């Protein structure tokens, strides 16, 4: 079984190309996190929200990452961090071409 972590928070920016450039090193470092399979970055400049959807090999690695990432975001001055971990129903997700791979 794999686990999906959904994180979102409010922030003033940057967004778009500035976000892509400013967080490039962070994006590369996420690939080194224990149990991570992939991340999709999310942003809404109008609502001033950002976050991501992650897939982890284990619930424990998702919990560990959420705790570390929440602390990191807090150190950046970001508040109102919301994180949820879900079990992925792989059988149904595969019917809809969900990007689940091991």
UniProtKB/TrEMBL annotation:
Keywords noted in UniProt: Monooxygenase, Oxidoreductase
Annotated Pfam families: ydhR
Protein known as: Monooxygenase
Signal sequence segment: none
Single GO MF annotation: monooxygenase activity
Organism: Lysinibacillus xylanilyticus
């Amino acid at each position: 079984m794999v686990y999906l972590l959904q994180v979102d928070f409010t922030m003033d920016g940057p967004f778009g190309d500035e976000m892509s450039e400013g967080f490039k090193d962070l994006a590369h470092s996420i690939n080194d996190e224990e149990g991570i399979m992939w991340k999709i970055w999310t942003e809404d400049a109008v609502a001033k929200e950002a976050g991501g959807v992650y897939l982890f090999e284990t619930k424990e690695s998702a919990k560990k990452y959420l705790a570390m990432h929440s602390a990191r975001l807090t150190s950046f001055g970001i508040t109102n961090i919301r994180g949820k971990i879900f079990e992925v129903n792989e059988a149904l997700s595969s019917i809809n071409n969900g990007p689940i791979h091991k």
